[in-house]
Amino acid sequence: MSLSGRQLVVGLSGGVSCYKVPNLVRLLYKDGASVQVIMTAAATKFITPLTLESVSQQPVAVKMFPEDEYVATRHIDYSDWAELIIIAPATANFMGKIATGISDDLLTTVVTAHRNPILIAPAMNPGMWENPVTQKNYNYLKELGHKFVDPVEGEMACDHEGVGRMAEPEEIFEAIKAQLSSLKVKKKSLSGKKVLITAGPTREKIDAVRFISNYSSGKMGYALAQAAIELGAETTLISGPSSLAPPSGAKFIPIESTEQLYQAVTKEFANTDCLIMAAAPSDFKPENEASEKIKRNSNGLKLLLQPTVDILKSLSNGKRKSQLVIGFALETSDAIANATKKLNEKNLDAIVVNKVSTTTGFNTDSNQVTFIARNNQPEQWKLMSKLETSRKILEKVSSMI
Ligand SMILES: Cc1cc2nc3c(=O)[nH]c(=O)nc-3n(C[C@H](O)[C@H](O)[C@H](O)COP(=O)(O)O)c2cc1C
Q1: Residue 358: pLDDT above 70?
Q2: Catalytic entry in 157, 158, 183, 337
Q3: What is the best residue among 62, 93, 130, 160 to mutate for testing ligand 1's pocket, by most ligand atoms within 8 Å of CB?
């Protein structure tokens, strides 16, 4: 059973075994799961959020009330989103809190709000584990239906002997798979639908070693592909050069130039229910590509550029009624007016408008967009991570498709 598109919250509370959790998250991510990591404040003393961000490819959440982020009711959003919550390691303190309904930080609150059984991997000193209060909490949580990957005997940081060492990541990984296979899979809103997403920049060759390109990182398109997979869509990602790993579960087609992008999209489009063009293709390309490296000279160099093919326009004019085409517009001024014009001219069903700033647009992790569906008022969305923005876009797609 693959974890492609499965939605997991991995929560860490504060114990030495936090060091094992990046391995667990890596196993989950490599198997195709979307993993949202949440840490208690104590857990961040043992391992940095950055490490877990690197292996989950998502921002890690820690604070219930961060000063610098708009988070609203994200404790409920995470809780609703997760098919399964895994607590690894679970401290004695954390087990005690969730057994009594204490919700005094983000992770405990997400657990309290969650309606399904969770999976708990305790880790603690044998004295803490054998403590009757811990055992009472353990048995009570089991009675409530929560599942455990029990701690084992073995070497421990505190040098004490007995049971308390957290199970190994591979064992927890297998327990997660077993638990997921026992859950009824909800029919997802894009099951049976084919979604085609383009991402990243293009490169237009000047000579054998140089090209024209832009700052696009591919982050938005890759996040869209992940969100489409989460909703059960058969997802194809066509991408220009990017350092990102394609989400597992997507059919991946790498391209380099705008012409290659055009060829690849045209080939896939007929067989697609929804196309989202998040790539940043070049509008111009050198009229002539030199086969050798152009030599330095003191007179300078004039490059003659010609327009590249307008992919969106060419495809959306011939689209079937049942097909959705969504474009992206990156505007530096008059954003809404220019994007609405593009929506109409290119016969799009919706357009997502980005502004370029330090927190939005190229190569950032967050985005603040305006979503304009045809014949609808523009909706200005709050600043969110690119994945959260993508999930909202894909929810729109499911309602429109
Ligand atoms: C070095 C060190 C290691 C610890 N290891 C554990 C542990 O493995 N298990 C545990 O239950 N508590 C452990 N603790 C205690 C917890 O960090 C402490 O109870 C903390 O309040 C837990 O907070 P949390 O449950 O919100 O993460 C350790 C503390 C220190 C200083």
Answers
A1: no
A2: 158
A3: 93
Residues in the chain: 401
User: Residue 119 and residue 141: Cα distance in Å, rounded?
Assistant: 10
3-state class (DSSP) for residue 187: coil
Within 10 Å of residue 369's Cβ, how many Cβ atoms? Answer: 26
Domains of the chain: 7-182 (3.40.50.1950), 194-400 (3.40.50.10300)
Task: Give residue 360's pLDDT.
Answer: 58
Q: Please tell me the distance from the alpha carbon of residue 231 to that of residue 236, in angstroms, as a whole number.
A: 14
What the block records as the tokens of 143 is: 């009675």
CA 17 from centroid of its chain's CA atoms = 26
Q: How far apart are the first and last CA of the chain?
A: 29
Q: Is 274 a catalytic residue?
A: no
What is the pLDDT at residue 162?
85
Residues in contact with 358: Cβ distance below 8 Å, sequence separation at least 6, in sequence order: 364
Q: How does residue 21 score in pLDDT terms, banded at 50, 70 and 90?
A: very high
In what order do the strands lie in the sheet containing 274-277? 251-254, 234-239, 194-199, 274-277, 324-331, 350-355, 369-373, 379-380
What is the atom index within ligand 1 of the atom nearest the CA of 42?
Answer: 27
- pLDDT number for residue 357: 62
The rounded radius of gyration (Å) of the Cα atoms in the chain is: 24
Average pLDDT, the chain: 92
DSSP track, 18-47: GGGHHHHHHHHHHTT-EEEEEE-TTGGGTS
From CA 40, how far away is CA 320, in angstroms rounded?
A: 50
Query: What integer is the mean pLDDT of 79-90?
Result: 96
Looking at residue 362, what is its pLDDT? 64
